[in-house]
Amino acid sequence: MIAIALILGFFFALTAEIIPCGPFYALLHPDFVALLLLYWAISSSSELSLTIVWLIGLFQDMVLGDVLGAQAIAGVIMIYLLYTSLGRVRRLSSWEQLFFIFLLLLTHRLLVWLWQAWAGVITWHFSLLLGPLIGALLWPIFTLALDYLRHALRPRPT
Amino acid sequence: MPALFFPHRYPPLLRVAVLVLLSVFVSVFSEKHPNIESVSLTMAYPVQWISMQETGFWQQADNYLQSRAALESENIRLHAELIRAQPKLLEADILRNENRQLLALLDSIPQPPGKVTVAQVIAQNFSPGSQLLTVNIGARAGVFVGQPVLAAGGVAGQVIRVSPMSSQVALLSDLDSSIPVQPADADTPLLVDGRGDIDRLAIPFQPRNTSLKVGDKLVTSGLGGRYPPGLNVGTISAVIHNGDQPFAQIAVQPAVHLGQLDTVLMLWDRPFPQPAVTP
Asked: Which domains does chain B possess?
């Protein structure tokens, strides 16, 4: 049940990233897949495999049509960085986690940007900073909603 | 979550390093083999399909919730636009006939009329690096790589990847995009490059004493054979002569609102490619 919910969750996160809603949404929407990965890594009791993170990122690259491997490697490094201080992050409330989430999302966005810039011209853009910021500000609501969903989907003892 | 390929006994940094190497390999490999991109676009189709359904749902909900007054005012507006457009249509007919006669006088072979198909935008990906749209028709409808894509106002971009059911369009503002143009009233060949900014293109390498000025209209020149000549591209919005720079910095406002496209026109300028007939 949880597995199906996760797969569906990643599908919807992906569609939310590509849905055509005008230029502001396209530039400033938070990276929903990265948010979902972070939530999964923080709330799951077992360690999630970096290979799976990589595969999810690769699929995201396919959907977005970017250089293959950009989201994949950004996701892996983001989750790895999270795991280096997972215990500390878990002890914080979701409001206090906000700062960590911002830094991780920023790392993610910058890594993707660098990977793309590898092939093209490097230009700075304000969305590189604002996207992660909006994502981090959404984090408390996001965790609240997903905690509720997870609670509702939890298999009950009969 | 079970470890998929890596047992967890390997140190995490080693796993990260291997995955980094794997990503480098995948990205270099996919750059070398363009077929991979079409395969990946095909694999992404389910997600795009869901996105398309969601967009359709929102549009329906929006239509349903629109008030009667808003619909009436829109109706009046569209009616006025139609009245304004009708003389232009007549004029276009007259011009087409006249053009045919003039071409006959010149003993020139008239160009076969192009074919245009409306495509719906089902996904967009704008990042500072790339400005791509995905549309809902692909190789099955005859879309090919390099096909010009138009929208209300002029050129929007060109097709860069094709899968059977969908295709990906790089907008004029994409960092990799470059289009041959000329001023509407002169034949100086120019290029307009994308800079990753949705409403600002640029003309590179023009001397500081350039004769281009703000307000000049730019149309495709037809050089390179990819875009037919005479299509609107944009208007020069700024010419900056900076003392330090070797070239003038010229900004171009695209003729199409690149950020707000929900339908585009795919243009078949050359004869429509017929599927090979098997005996």
From this structure: 178-260 (2.40.10.350)
